[in-house]
TrEMBL record, chain A:
Higher taxonomy: Eukaryota, Metazoa, Chordata, Craniata, Vertebrata
UniProt GO cellular component terms: cytoplasmic exosome (RNase complex); nuclear exosome (RNase complex); nucleolus
CDD domains: RNase_PH_RRP46
Domain Exoribonuclease phosphorolytic span(s) in chain numbering: 17-136, 140-189
GO molecular function, one term: DNA binding
One Pfam family in the UniProt entry: RNase_PH_C
Protein name (Swiss-Prot/TrEMBL): Exosome complex component RRP46
Quaternary structure (record): Homodimer. Component of the RNA exosome core complex (Exo-9), composed of EXOSC1, EXOSC2, EXOSC3, EXOSC4, EXOSC5, EXOSC6, EXOSC7, EXOSC8 and EXOSC9; within the complex interacts with EXOSC3, EXOSC8, and EXOSC9. The catalytically inactive RNA exosome core complex (Exo-9) associates with the catalytic subunit EXOSC10/RRP6. Exo-9 may associate with DIS3 to form the nucleolar exosome complex, or DIS3L to form the cytoplasmic exosome complex.
GO terms (BP aspect): nuclear mRNA surveillance; poly(A)-dependent snoRNA 3'-end processing; rRNA catabolic process; rRNA processing; U4 snRNA 3'-end processing
Entry's family note: Belongs to the RNase PH family.
Entry's localization field: Cytoplasm; Nucleus, Nucleolus
Keywords: Cytoplasm, DNA-binding, Exosome, Nucleus, Phosphoprotein, rRNA processing
This protein's record includes keyword Metal-binding: no
TrEMBL record, chain B:
Name used for this protein in its record: Exosome complex component RRP43
Database matches in Gene3D superfamilies: GHMP Kinase, N-terminal domain (3.30.230.70)
Tree of life domain: Eukaryota
Lineage: Eukaryota, Metazoa, Chordata, Craniata, Vertebrata
Gene Ontology annotations of biological process type: exonucleolytic trimming to generate mature 3'-end of 5.8S rRNA from tricistronic rRNA transcript (SSU-rRNA, 5.8S rRNA, LSU-rRNA); nuclear mRNA surveillance; nuclear polyadenylation-dependent rRNA catabolic process; rRNA catabolic process; TRAMP-dependent tRNA surveillance pathway; U1 snRNA 3'-end processing; U4 snRNA 3'-end processing; U5 snRNA 3'-end processing
Similarity annotation: Belongs to the RNase PH family.
Organism: Falco tinnunculus
TrEMBL record, chain C:
Keywords: Acetylation, Cytoplasm, Exosome, Isopeptide bond, Nucleus, RNA-binding, rRNA processing, Ubl conjugation
Source superkingdom: Eukaryota
Cellular component, GO annotation: cytoplasmic exosome (RNase complex); nuclear exosome (RNase complex); nucleolus
Family the entry assigns: Belongs to the RRP40 family.
Pfam family, one: RRP40_S1
Organism field: Falco tinnunculus (Common kestrel)
GO BP field: CUT catabolic process; DNA metabolic process; exonucleolytic trimming to generate mature 3'-end of 5.8S rRNA from tricistronic rRNA transcript (SSU-rRNA, 5.8S rRNA, LSU-rRNA); nuclear polyadenylation-dependent rRNA catabolic process; poly(A)-dependent snoRNA 3'-end processing; regulation of gene expression; TRAMP-dependent tRNA surveillance pathway; U4 snRNA 3'-end processing
Name of the molecule in the record: Exosome complex component RRP40
Species classification: Eukaryota, Metazoa, Chordata, Craniata, Vertebrata
Segments forming domain K Homology: 176-224
Location in or out of the cell: Cytoplasm; Nucleus, Nucleolus
Keyword Acetylation applies: yes
Boundaries of every Exosome complex component RRP40 N-terminal domain copy: 10-84
Length: 200, 276, 254
């Protein structure tokens, strides 16, 4: 598993994803690590846990999950905080935290480069990191970003430029067994009919 | 007996109610709490509104200031939203710098403003590249009983509809701005975004407008924001238990009906204060 | 979804549901977690698997393994997922190497690499009495086994078996070298007739203690020899059997 590398160009209904690749177990200190690349966007995830809880966050019935999102430059701001919340609650739905009560699971995501679809890349890196750490999971999940261009066509995994031109950008996290929606967040507005590029 | 049961097995207590298609506070699953809105509650602000959703109370004040527009968008003003969850509103929060929930709510409101184009930022510009309005929208929660996003979005919309900006002209000779406080104009509200939140119970049941207690027990939340044309401004599901596409569609349908209710309410309130 | 037997030896991923072989009805749907001897024909659900409505839910990524217990009915046996992991989670009965971090009254606190420090009573050594305390200092290495290890309680270790014998457990002597490896490698080394250990033992004599928590203590005649063993063990994580044999051949030639 460690160092496993795959490169796939998926063609789904005429929509192309940029080439993506993943490397697991590349950091020696964390309990689990993964780097995820989508085109020129890349995110590095490091995972610690189940470890000792620091401070008063300890929960008696399940593990505390903490997500830290570090931007490429500068300090994390409000956008990072809101994304941390999205990522944390997505991971919480999947990690079987009840199996490790009174412990902490810390997920650190470092943005290495942003060339569009950053949030979905973070989601994918988080999932691969959780997998590498060997934490008990009820399912896997993946992240995907769709952009609606001014003509109403759907572009999957948009680049920064495509994101700027797009009318609306929708990001989803989808779980593996039944392809249900774990997380969605949108930017820009679209009609209800366009909305259901909601998962197949 | 019931109180003891509720304390020991809160989730089971809720399940028994939900099985009968109702909730402990007497509402049906798809029913909102009584919604009240008071516009212009803060006389010193340029625009304000107080919104109550059951016990959840949120007040929004809009303060307008003049500033130079940013260099890269010379014809645009600014809207700066901020959501505060002070320690006064619930035991969940501590005083000090804003916590994660407050920051996430602020970002959500900022996204709603940006996505829906509630106000065209060009409308806030007074003189191209020289002068523009900055609208500081401070949303403060006074009583936290769940569904803070719906209440905040509603308070923001109502407060913005209440804003009266003085007319500003630039003196050609001196180049200084002159504010005419006697002549006031309302803001042009382009869109009316309304948020509708749902809590997910046991991965399948959707209940509308959750209280704080329900939010704690639920396995996830979804917030859908629509405007008057039925367009989606935001579908916000921050993790939590997975939902099928069909269920999300149900949420959107319910959100559109909720929009009509809110729009009717806000129009009625505005009409009632106009004659004065 | 696939039948559990069909997936044995294959890679399974979290979220996969394995269908169970048809049960003889008298056994019911009872299931025991973890180790311990299982009665005939009963199904054991090992690490990385959980029971769900449809069958077995996989919670870890790895190879699915199966072992018949006691040659019982076809439906029985133990299933588990052989996964790679770095963080140790205490399991009852596991032999581990701990580092003494504190002496608190009549218990020692040991760091075993889990989320919580394990406790070890000073009476849990062979021949220890209230008067005859074992000489344990902060920083010492201790090889012991878990007496209590569950998610809700502080793990407790002992250095004696049920008959009061040390059975190899206790304070690990001075000198030597402690390294940390992944849990997957430790399981490989601890497997009966492990190839790596057999090949290493042909180089020269050395002492080796393997803890299930991923810690290995090594001591050979000289420091140099110790370091050679340590480096080979650490490299085993990423070497194939072929590469390892080549590396070992280099040393045995000397």
């Amino acid at each position: 598993m460690a160092g496993e590398k795959e490169k796939v160009v998926a063609a789904a209904g005429g929509c192309c994803l940029r080439p993506f690749s993943c490397e697991q177990g590349l950091l020696s200190r964390p309990d689990g690590s993964a780097a995820f690349l989508q085109g020129d966007t890349s995110v590095l995830a490091g995972l610690y846990g189940p470890a000792e809880v620091k401070g008063s966050k300890e929960l008696p019935d399940r593990a505390v999950l903490e997500v830290l999102l570090r931007p490429k430059v500068g300090l994390p701001g409000v956008i990072e905080r809101s994304r941390e919340q999205l990522l944390r609650q997505t991971c919480e739905a999947v990690v079987l935290g009840v199996l490790h009560p009174r412990t902490a699971i810390t997920l650190v995501l470092q943005v290495l480069s942003d060339a569009g679809s950053l949030l979905s890349c973070c989601i994918n890196a988080a999932c691969m990191g959780l997998l590498d750490a060997g934490l008990p999971l009820s399912s896997l999940f993946c992240g995907v970003t769709c952009a609606l261009d001014p003509n109403g066509a759907i572009i999957l995994d948009p680049t920064t430029r495509q994101e700027q031109e797009a009318r609306a950008i929708l990001t989803f996290a989808i779980d593996s067994p039944e392809r249900k929606v774990l997380m969605t967040t949108t930017k820009g507005s679209c009609s209800v009919e366009e909305g259901p590029c909601f998962p197949p | 007996m019931a109180t003891a049961f509720k304390m020991v097995e809160p989730l089971e207590y809720y399940r028994r109610f939900l099985k009968e298609n109702c909730r402990p506070d007497g509402r049906e699953l798809g029913e909102f709490r009584a919604t009240t809105v008071n516009i212009g509650s803060i006389t010193t602000a340029d625009g304000s509104a107080l919104v109550k959703l059951g016990n959840t109370t949120v007040v929004c004040g809009v303060k307008a200031e003049l500033a130079a527009p940013a260099v890269d968008s010379a014809n645009k003003g600014y809207i700066v939203p901020n959501v505060e969850l002070p320690s006064l509103c619930s035991t969940k929060f501590r005083s000090g710098p804003p916590g994660e929930e407050a920051q996430a709510a602020s970002q959500f409101i900022a996204d709603v403003i940006e996505n829906s184009q509630i106000i065209a930022k060009e409308d806030l510009c007074i003189a191209n590249g020289k002068l523009a309005w900055v609208l500081y929208c401070d949303i403060i929660c006074l009583d936290y009983d769940g569904n803070i996003l719906d209440a905040s979005a509603f308070a923001l919309l109502a407060a913005l509809k209440n804003v009266q900006l003085p007319s500003v002209t630039i003196n050609e000779e001196t180049g200084l701005s002159e504010v005419n406080l006697k002549q006031k104009n309302p803001l042009v509200i382009r869109k009316h975004p309304v948020a509708t939140s749902f809590a997910i119970f046991d991965d399948t049941l959707l209940i509308v407008d959750p209280t704080a207690e329900e939010e704690d027990l639920a396995s996830g939340t979804v917030t859908v924001v629509t405007d008057e044309e039925g367009r989606l401004c935001s579908v916000h599901k921050p993790g939590g238990s997975p939902l099928t596409g069909d269920k999300l569609q149900d949420c959107i349908t319910r959100a559109i009906t909720r929009h009509k209710e809110v729009k009717k309410l806000i129009d009625k309130v505005i009409k009632s204060i106009k004659p004065k | 979804m696939a039948a559990a037997e069909a997936c044995v030896g294959q890679v399974v991923l979290p979220g996969d549901v394995l269908l169970l072989p048809a049960h003889p009805d008298e056994d019911g749907e009872r299931l025991r977690l973890g180790g311990g001897a299982a009665p005939r024909g009963r199904l054991l659900c090992g690490p990385g698997l959980r029971r769900c409505a449809a069958g077995l839910l996989v919670t870890k990524c790895g190879l699915l393994r199966h072992r018949q217990t006691g040659g019982g009915a076809a439906a029985g046996g133990a299933y588990w997922v052989d996964s790679q992991q770095k963080r140790y989670v205490p399991v009852k009965g596991d032999h581990v190497i701990g580092v003494v971090t504190a002496k608190a009254g009549d218990v020692f606190k040991l760091d075993v690499g889990g989320s919580e420090q394990a406790s070890l009573s000073y009476l849990a050594f062979e021949g220890a009495t209230k008067r005859n305390r074992p000489n344990v200092q902060v920083g010492d290495l201790i090889y012991g086994q878990f007496l209590v290890a569950n998610k809700d309680m502080e793990p407790e270790m002992v250095c004696i078996d049920s008959s009061g014998r040390s059975n190899g457990m206790g304070i690990i002597g001075q000198d030597g070298f402690l390294i940390k490896v992944s849990l997957g490698l430790i399981r490989k080394l601890l497997a009966p007739k492990s190839e790596i250990i057999q090949e290493l033992s042909q180089l020269y004599p050395f002492e080796l203690v393997l803890g299930m928590n991923g810690r290995i203590w090594v001591k050979a005649k000289t420091v140099q020899q110790t370091l050679i063993i340590v480096n080979i063990l650490e490299a085993c994580e990423y070497m194939t059997a072929e590469q390892r044999k080549q590396a070992l051949a280099k040393f045995s030639g000397n």
